[in-house]
């Protein structure tokens, strides 16, 4: 059986993690969610994630910093940024700093799944189920 | 107002509206400065004419007196002359023609002098005088007749006539002397009066001048200093119209009406500036709101999508949790928008009792998104039992939002902004100190920051209206804004607002009439 995709989701809005956890698990990801950047970075120090999804704008540490720390520790990890509308410029900066892609709030779970699927492909994973939405009612 | 004009002179404490004030000014009878000056000078002229006429009358009376005195002296002389010839006649004999001539002269003088003499001597006495003269004349005539008849010189009749003549003669002389004497005294009295007259005139002129000068000064300097005080008040941002204080209307009333018009215009302009600054502040706040709104919307989108996706497989409990999230996030979105809408709504300026803590928290929550975006740390410190203030909630929150946004612009990521409220050292005032550790303001810029349209920010980011409008608003509330800043050491803006009086004791809801005493210690001139 193929290794499952290791995903970390960081957003200081707890509901984001709460909803993305099952949404991504459904497509075959192992998901850990955090709403505090400090804890997330600590976890990144301990474990290698294939994909990190992080909000760009947070209270204490911002997404760019998270991006830098993650890439410093795990250069191969794909980092996907979540941006608000006022931070498109910051998102560009993030891309320049090595982020894989960004996704603008508000987004649907499927949109994130698509980005993650592309990232997985880039990493060489084949088995990410893009069609999870078919399970829906 | 037009129905009850009595409402005006002791004007109601609250600001009357401008057009009714203008009507009140125009309703008063006109009594201009020109008219008052003319009246003042007219009274001087009338006084001068009165003095001249008086002096002229007295002088002509004096002239008559002197003429009379002269006549009286000549009369005396004629009588004395007549008596001398009479004496010669009795001693040496001869004729009485000379006596008769002199007596005739005396009679003529007496007749001429009679009207004037009446002022000096009683007419009865004058009559007696005439009797003496008549009797004397008859006696002389009898003597002449006797001599003509060649009566003996030592006849029995002659001594009787002689005695009677002597008697009347001496009485006539005495009377003539007395007449002249009385007249001389009267002339002297008039002269003495004339000597005193200029002194009295001068004294009166002095008093009169002082009174008139005082009157004119009160009439002109009083309103002038009131107008001067008004211009200062206007400079301070107080646009309450002037009300008539006097029963009449003059050039100052016209000027006051013009000032009122100017104040109305200024207030209007100020309102326009406030409004346009508010619009730009709303623009800034809106971008933050739009950004912040993304969070609940994103939460709702994610939750709704997952609910739809997994509806069949979810436990009831989970479904309920998701629906709850939807409800809560919906409310959150509403709240974010409502704050801004509250701020943006064009409301009447209303003065109400305000809890400063609430106003400050409201301002901070309006700017919450900007605070988040900027990455700055903000600390709000409002002690409990802070005195309430009186004011317009919207205007004041505009002031604090602006100061907060300025501070956020000045600090970078990780900067600090603090809002601290407290009672001021200025008695009767509450202060809000908004300080940041941002870029600070160079000394050469500091004097300009309150100028309208002064900004150091890029186009589209700064309008330069914030501080000027804020100062206008705060001054309208009877307060002041002070600033201390140095480049690299941050800035501190202190907003002073008059504390509201204890309810019931409050006599002036708009706050104390006077401004903080040392109004500009820290705002560079
Ligand atoms: N807290 C502050 N720190 C540094 N500079 C400030 C601060 N507040 C105001 N200023 C300066 O004062 C100027 C005028 O401010 P303001 O009247 O609010 O207009 P605006 O913010 O639109 O530029 C600003 O452009 C800025 O240079
Ligand atoms: Mg400003």
Structural class of chain B: alpha+beta
Radius of gyration of chain A: 14 Å
The CATH homologous superfamily of chain A: Response regulator
CATH-level-2 architecture of chain A: 3-Layer(aba) Sandwich
First CA to last CA of chain B: what distance?
42 Å
Query: Globular, elongated, flat, extended or rod-shaped: what is the shape of chain A?
Result: globular
Supply the number of structural domains of chain B. 2
Summarize the structure.
The complex is a heterodimer of chains A (137) and B (525). Chain A is built from five helices and five strands. With 137 residues, chain A is α/β, with parallel strands linked by helices.
Protein architecture, described:
The complex is a heterodimer of chains A (137) and B (525). Chain A is an alpha/beta fold. Chain A has a single domain, classed as Rossmann fold (3-Layer(aba) Sandwich), CATH 3.40.50.2300. Chain A is 42% helix and 20% strand. Chain A contains five helices and five strands; from the N terminus they run E-H-E-H-E-H-E-H-E-H. Chain A has helices at 14-25, 37-46, 63-73, 88-96, 109-123; strands spanning 5-10, 29-34, 51-55, 78-83, 101-104. In chain A, strands 2-1-3-4-5 form a five-stranded parallel beta sheet, sandwiched between helices. In chain A, strand 4 (78-83), helix 4 and strand 5 (101-104) form a beta-alpha-beta unit. In chain A, helix 2 packs parallel to helix 3. Residues 131-137 of chain A have low confidence and may be disordered. Chain B has 525 residues and is an alpha+beta fold. Chain B has two domains: 34-215; 263-522, Heat Shock Protein 90, CATH 3.30.565.10. Chain B has eleven helices and seven strands. In chain B, strands 2-4-5-7-6 form a five-stranded mixed beta sheet, with helices on one face. Chain B is rod-shaped. The interface between A and B is medium-sized, with 25 and 26 residues. The structure holds adenosine-5'-diphosphate and magnesium ion. Magnesium ion binds at residues 402, 405-406, 466 of chain B.
């Amino acid at each position: 059986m193929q290794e499952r995709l290791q995903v970390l989701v960081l957003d200081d809005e707890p509901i984001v993690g709460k909803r993305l956890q099952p949404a991504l698990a459904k497509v075959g990801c192992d998901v850990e969610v955090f709403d505090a950047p400090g804890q997330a970075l600590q976890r990144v120090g301990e474990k290698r994630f294939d994909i990190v999804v992080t909000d760009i704008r947070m209270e204490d540490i911002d997404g760019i910093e998270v991006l830098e720390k993650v890439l410093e520790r795990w250069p191969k990890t794909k980092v996907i940024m979540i941006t608000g509308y006022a931070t498109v410029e910051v998102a560009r900066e993030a891309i320049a700093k090595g982020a894989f892609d960004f996704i603008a709030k508000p987004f649907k779970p499927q949109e994130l799944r698509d980005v993650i699927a592309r990232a997985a492909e880039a990493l060489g994973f084949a088995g990410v189920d893009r069609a999870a939405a078919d399970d829906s009612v | 107002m037009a129905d009850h004009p009595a409402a005006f002179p002791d004007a109601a404490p609250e600001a009357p509206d401008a057009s009714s004030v203008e009507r009140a000014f125009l309703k008063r009878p006109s009594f201009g400065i020109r008219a008052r000056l003319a009246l003042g000078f007219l009274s001087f002229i009338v006084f001068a004419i009165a003095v001249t006429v008086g002096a002229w009358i007295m002088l002509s009376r004096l002239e008559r007196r002197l003429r009379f005195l002269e006549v009286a002296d000549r009369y005396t002389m004629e009588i004395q002359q007549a008596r001398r010839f009479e004496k010669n006649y009795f001693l040496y004999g001869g004729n009485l023609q000379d006596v008769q001539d002199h007596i005739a002269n005396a009679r003529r003088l007496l007749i001429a002098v009679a009207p004037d003499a009446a002022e000096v001597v009683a007419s009865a006495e004058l009559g007696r005088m005439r009797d003496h003269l008549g009797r004397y004349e008859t006696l002389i005539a009898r003597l002449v007749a006797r001599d003509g008849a060649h009566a003996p010189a030592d006849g029995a009749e002659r001594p009787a006539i002689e005695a009677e003549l002597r008697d009347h003669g001496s009485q006539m002389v005495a009377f003539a002397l007395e007449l002249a004497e009385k007249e001389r005294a009267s002339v002297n009295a008039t002269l003495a009066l004339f000597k005193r007259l200029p002194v009295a005139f001068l004294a009166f002129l002095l008093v009169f001048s002082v009174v008139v000068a005082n009157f004119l000064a009160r009439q002109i300097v009083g309103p002038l200093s009131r107008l001067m005080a008004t211009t200062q008040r206007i400079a301070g941002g107080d646009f309450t119209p002037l009300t008539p204080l006097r029963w009449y209307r003059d050039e100052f009333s016209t000027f006051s009406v013009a000032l009122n018009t100017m104040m109305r215009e200024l207030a209007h302009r100020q309102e326009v500036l406030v409004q346009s600054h508010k619009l730009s502040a709303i623009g800034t706040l809106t971008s933050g709101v739009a950004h912040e709104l993304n969070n609940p919307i994103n939460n709702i989108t994610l939750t709704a999508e997952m609910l739809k996706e997994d509806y069949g497989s979810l436990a009831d409990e989970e479904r309920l949790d998701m629906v709850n999230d939807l409800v809560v996030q919906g409310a959150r979105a509403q709240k974010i928008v409502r704050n801004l809408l509250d701020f943006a709504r064009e409301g009447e300026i209303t003065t109400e009792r305000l809890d400063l803590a609430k106003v400050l928290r409201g301002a901070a929550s309006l700017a919450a998104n900007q605070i988040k975006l900027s990455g700055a740390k903000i600390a709000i410190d409002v002690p409990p039992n802070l005195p309430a203030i009186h004011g317009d909630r919207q205007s004041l929150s505009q002031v604090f939002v602006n100061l907060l946004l300025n501070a956020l612009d000045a600090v970078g990521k990780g900067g600090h902004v603090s809002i601290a409220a407290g009672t001021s050292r200025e008695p009767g005032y509450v202060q809000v100190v908004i300080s940041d550790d941002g870029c600070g303001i160079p000394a050469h810029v500091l004097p300009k920051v309150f100028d309208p349209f002064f900004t150091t920010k890029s186009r589209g980011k700064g309008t330069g209206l914030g501080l000027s409008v804020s100062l206008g608003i705060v001054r309208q509330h009877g307060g002041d804004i002070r600033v201390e800043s140095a480049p690299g050491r941050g800035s501190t803006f202190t907003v002073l607002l008059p504390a509201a009086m204890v309810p019931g004791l409050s006599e002036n809801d708009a706050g104390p009439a006077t401004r903080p005493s040392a109004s500009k210690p820290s705002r560079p001139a």
